[in-house]
Amino acid sequence: MLDYKLLEALATVVECGGFERAGVSLGLSQSAISQRIKALEVRLGQPVLVRAPALEPTLAGRPLLNHFQQVQLLERDLRRALPTLDSTSPRLRIAVNADSLATWWAEAVGQLCQEEGLLIDLVVEDQDVGLKRMRNGDVAACLCASPQPIAGARCVALGTMTYHPLATPAYRKHHLPAGPTPEAFRHAPAIVYGPHDQLQHRFLAQRGYRGAFPYHLCPSSEGFVRLARAGMGYGMMPLMQVEEWVNGGELVSIVPGQVLEVPLYWHFWRHSGELVEHLTAALQKVQLQ
């Protein structure tokens, strides 16, 4: 029989990124957390955490994290059937891409969170790599661009987000005076969300350009738009996020009529219980653009 206090310690260490912060979260000392992790490793006969160079679960730790997350969700269903049990609010750790979080996500899940008393722990991750978090047992569900489900999980298509290559009119006039040519792209500064963000590269590939280009790195959706509005570069942005400035002429497409479409998929464990089923149904009602 698994000792769920030990699994809780493992999950909290991974979520908090350290033993000390995990102890604060659980109201325990750092030493107590270390002892629980050690007890789990002794029981398994192998490590569940890699301490260096970065703290992350081992191949043995990942299925334990996945199991613990699913058990938490199933316990939530049991509490509804047996109200006399502990009524702690359910908490769901989810990986979401920044653009969804900045646009449609809150409206899609807000009512459900209020009705179910659901608390969400959001991990902001690029849509191309978010699934890795779920595979590693770090999150219970994931919103990403991959249509391939991992073992034991389901994948539901939600729709497509459309990205436009936008910049200020002054930027376009200065950096692309002859239009979107390969020579212009070689020197025109772009704005990239993070090291795993491939939207800019895909857009340029559509234009037939696959060379190097200068770029600002800005891991913030709000900051991303601010940099573009300040004329610092052009970037791929969903229209729903910048409609106000596009309609006002403050932001324009550097290649009118060309967009980049990115499909989004919702991944979750097959035996996650009613709460995730309700969340999935809410997400499927979203009309992306």
Total DSSP helices = 13
What about the largest sheet?
7 strands, mixed
Shape annotation: elongated
Q: Which series of helices and strands comes N to C?
A: HHHEEHEHHEHEEHHEHEHEHEEH
Radius of gyration: 22 Å
User: Which structural class is indicated by helix and strand composition?
Assistant: alpha/beta
CATH class of the domain at 161-261: Alpha Beta
Write down the CATH topology of the domain at 161-261: D-Maltodextrin-Binding Protein, domain 2
Q: Could you give the count of β-strands?
A: 11
Organism: Halomonas tibetensis
Pfam families: HTH_1, LysR_substrate
Domain HTH lysR-type: 2-58
Keywords: DNA-binding, Transcription, Transcription regulation
Please explain how this structure is put together.
Keywords: DNA-binding, Transcription, Transcription regulation. This is LysR family transcriptional regulator ArgP. It comes from Halomonas tibetensis. The protein is α/β, with parallel strands linked by helices and about 290 residues long. The protein has a domain at about 160-260: Periplasmic binding protein-like II (D-Maltodextrin-Binding Protein, domain 2, 3-Layer(aba) Sandwich), CATH 3.40.190.10. It is built from 13 helices and eleven strands. The strands form three sheets. Strands 3, 4, 5, 6, 9, 10 and 11 form a seven-stranded mixed beta sheet that branches. Strands 1-2 form a two-stranded antiparallel ribbon. Strands 7-8 form a two-stranded parallel sheet. Helix 1 (about 5-15) packs across helix 3, helix 1 crosses helix 4 (about 60-80) and helix 6 runs antiparallel to helix 13 (about 275-285). The longest helix is centred in the N-terminal third of the chain and has 21 residues, at about 60-80. The protein is elongated. The chain starts with a helix and ends in a 5-residue tail after the last helix. The relative contact order is 0.15.
